[in-house]
Each structure stands twice: as C-alpha cells, then as structure tokens.
Amino acid sequence: MSEMKDIQNEKPARSRNFIEEIIEEDIREGKNDSRVHTRFPPEPNGYLHIGHAKSICLNFGLADKYNGLTNLRFDDTNPVKEDVEYVDSIMEDVRWLGFDWGDRLYYASDYFGQLYEYAVILIKKGKAYICDMPAEEISATRGTPTRPGKESPYRNRTVEENLDLFGRMRAGEFPDGTRVLRAKIDMSSPNMHMRDPILYRILHTNHHRTGDAWCIYPMYDFAHGESDSIERITHSICTLEFEVHRPLYDWLIREIDIYAPRQIEFARLNLSYTVMSKRKLLELVKEKYVQGWDDPRMPTICGLRRRGYTPESIRNFADIIGVAKRDNMIDVSLLEFCIREDLNKQANRVMGVLNPVKVIIDNYPERQVEEMEAAVNPENPEAGTRKVPFSKELYIEREDFMEDPPNKFFRLAPGREVRLRAAYIIKCESVEKDPVTNEITAIHCYYDVNTKSGMPDSNRKVKGTLHWVSASHAVEVDVRLYDRLFVVPDPDNAEEGKNFKDYLNPDSLTEVKGYLEPSIRDAKIGEKYQFERLGYFVVDKDSKAKSLVFNRVVPLRDSWARIEGQK
Ligand code: ATP
Ligand code: MG
User: Fold this and answer.
1) Which of ligand 1's atoms lies nearest the C-alpha of 239?
2) CATH superfamily of 271-348+477-565
3) Ligand 1 neighbourhood includes 277 CB (under 6 angstroms)
4) How far is it, in rounded angstroms, from Cα 226 to Cα 496?
C-alpha cells in the first residue's frame, strides 16, 4: 500500500535498502577511503534481459548516489559460448538504459596474464595443485552436502611438480580435459564450493579477444573475484545464488593476498509469465519460437525496446521493485503499469480503428469534410492540437456497437446516442446487414449539428464517447497485438514430463489491419502513440515508406487495480 502511494505521488520516497545501509556504514567508517566503486559484470553469452537491467540500475544507481564509479566488465572466461555479437549488444543496451561507464570498459580476458600469476602464487604457497582426474571423477569424489568428499590422489604433489605441470598446461602440452588446477582447501567442508574447486581448465579454443594466446582458461569463481580486486571494486553486488560462493571469493583473495572487495548478494528479479535464463531465451531464438532476440515478446532489453518500452519506464520499474534479500516473483503487470505511466505523459494521441464497421451519417452533407480539433496530448497542454478530418462515412470499432445491448452498454445501439470524440453526438437509426452472413455492414446514424465544440449544445452529456476515423481519409497500417509469451505465471516451474516450452502462449501474437487518422502518415520508427481507447503503440522497424507497422506496447486497461485486488 505504501508503494502504491509512492507511485501515485510519482515520488519514490523509499527508505534505504540494505545495500545502501552497508555502503553508508562503510563510508562512515572510512573503509576503502570512503570510495564507492561498483561494476556490472555480464558474461557475453547472450543478450541482456530485464533482470540484468535491474542489476545495471542498481550498480550504476549506487555509484550515482554515492558519488562513485561503475565499471562495465565482461566476464569473458568461457570462450566456447561467448561472442562479439553479444559484447556489442550489451554495450548498446547499457547505454540505451541511460548509463555511462566512461572509460572504464574492461574484460576479464585482459587479466589472463595477471590471473595466471595469481594462480602461480597459490601453487607456490601449497594452496593449489594439478589434478589429473577426469571431470566426472572429480565431481563423483566431491561427496554430497552431508557426506564429505574424497581427497584427490594428486593432492599432495610437490610445489615444483605443480609449477612444472601448470607451465606445461599453459604451453599446450596436454589435450582438453586431461588436467585441471584445483584449489587445496577442504574436501570435508560443509560448503561444496570449498571442496578443492577447479580454478583452471584446458581448452584449446579460440577466444573472441585473446585469439589462441591461451589454451587454459580460469573458472568463473577464480576470474570474477580476482578481477573485482584488480579493479579495486569496493562493493561487488551479485545475485543470491552466489552467497554460497562467498567463502571461496574471500578465501582466494586472502590467500593471494590482494585488495579485498566486499561481495553483497541480493535476490534476482523474477518476472511472471516469462523466462529469464539466457539458456532458455537462446533456445526460444534458435528453435524459432520467437523471431529473434529482439522479438517484442522477449524479456530482453532489445525486445522491450522494440516493444516500445522506454528507458525511463524500466529504470522506474527497477526502483519501485527495490532490492530484496529473498527470492520472489514480480508480477509483469507492474512493468506494464510503469510503461503506461510514462507513455501517458509522453505519447501523442491519435484515433484509429482496429476492427472496423462503417457508420454512415445520413443527414451529413455529401462530400463535406470538416477538420475537427483534438488535443495532441491532454496530459501535456504544450503539445497543442491536431486536425482530424470528419466526413459522412466513418469507421468505429465493431465492439462499440450492439444491436441488442444489455442495459449497461453505454456505446452505440439502435436508438441510442454516443459522442464521437472531438466531434458530434450521433444517434443510431438503423443497420444494414449482409443477407447471407447476417453480419452488420453499415450503421446508419443522424448527427446533431449543435453538439460540436463551440456550438450551443457542445456540453450536452451522453454516456459513451467513441473513437472513430473518416473512412476515406483513413491510413491503413499493420498492427501486431502482443500478449504474454507464456500462459502460466511461472513457466520455469514445469510439471513433471513437461518443460517451459510446453507453456508457450499460442496467441502471443495477433496481426491485424488498423485504420488511422491521416496525421499518422509522418510517423517515424520508434515513435510511440496512444491509439485512443485502445492502448499504446510504437512504430516498428519493419515499417516501409508507405506501409507502417505498429507494435502494441500495452493496452490501456489499468491492471494495477487488479494487482492490488490479488494481494
Ligand atoms: P542468466 O542466469 O540469465 O543466464 P547470468 O547471471 O548468467 O544470467 P551474467 O551475464 O553472469 O548472467 O549476469 C551479469 C550480472 O547480472 C550479474 O551480476 C548477475 O548477478 C546479474 N543478473 C543476472 N540475472 C539477473 C536477474 N534476474 N536479476 C538481477 N540481476 C541479475
Ligand atoms: Mg552468470
């Protein structure tokens, strides 16, 4: 409820989150000379999604708030899955969200030399050894959380032998998978990550930045913390699943004896009706369930951008959801609420009809055209007015007419009156039907000439107001109506024998024609509009000079009330 108030006042006057409390205490105590330095560390193995956006907003936001800095660092330690395509898209997305890493763009691969030296330090201290067991055997001998693991028979190799083997691993003497470097910690630790974890593996694979300079690559846990240290990151913020890695993070830094950042975990963002793992998103792309990473149904940042989301709406969303310590699921309608809020302020209004039925105004002069004046955006008086042509034949939505309506139907029906937005009050006199299908082909009306703005009866009240478009002036466009990609709130949680793809929504995309007022002709790719009474729409990049394509960002219906109701 308090959140609700904040949103309505548009002032997220929230209290400090637990990470801010930690940082403020560190500043007070003069830790790290009171510096604040965060980083956003994506692995370039996929496109960024809304969960990453949360992390980006958090890391850059904290640095902003405390006069600190944020690095963008690619954790590119797994050459098998990484690609420059992803590096480029990640930089584009971070910039688009409105954040700037200045000249602090780094790659873990830049540190391969330094990381190698760190590994040598561990070997020399007797804290790491070369293990010749194959991967399956290593995991088979790790034990379980309740049963200790078994020590490797190679665990007590001498420092000299370890140094020699590590050098030869690097020199390329051994094939993939034959040897690894392991930390020598404790095979009976209750924390599985402390049971002699692997630090380096042999991979004769070309790396997208270092080429074939290396044939051994550091494991994530080794590269990540040490890279944080090299960059003198003060607060290394990551998601909860790394909490159990923290003892290893701290152990490595202590044993190598280098600058110690502090790792802080928060709950990752989960969003209803979608999946967020890069592996699953890649599957949807590769198996063509969607049309690409930027398909407007995807929770990727490029997908949301193409869908018509604005950076402001995503930043606002990240702020509203806050920072949690426990895993939770955020309702996607909160994200939709944020984009509605933003576009309500920004988007120009136009009228358009998606499912047309013709209205003929019998008492309106043949061939007369009037230019009606309508507000470009009632939320923004400075946006001024636009002209909308009115004529004898119009389109309205088929759903806005009922031949035999119930009492509560306040739209058009035989003998009933409605106002046409920015124009006249009309009254339905009769309908024409197709003799075969019985479908209504035209609605005949009379208009009241005195009800236009500026005329004596302009304030006359009727119950319903409809949007409309002049039939002969309408611009035909393609409209893509998007719905949720999945039919269940938590597709990750598939029942036995099923997987997340079994829950894809077969109706997540519906393509229709739209008939819009002529002012839309000059719309440019990326521009957003409110189609009055229908929702927000964005001009898609598939648009051509004479044929516009619109994506529905979100319908107008305010589902915030519904979320409140569910609580
Ligand atoms: P995924 O699990 O989707 O494959 P990842 O965690 O492997 O993502 P990274 O590239 O390693 O992806 O993530 C970069 C940063 O973004 C990390 O700090 C990670 O903790 C954070 N991050 C990833 N997913 C989320 C999420 N859903 N919510 C918040 N932060 C996230
Ligand atoms: Mg990761």
Assistant:
1) 20
2) Ribosomal Protein L25; Chain P (2.40.240.10)
3) yes
4) 40
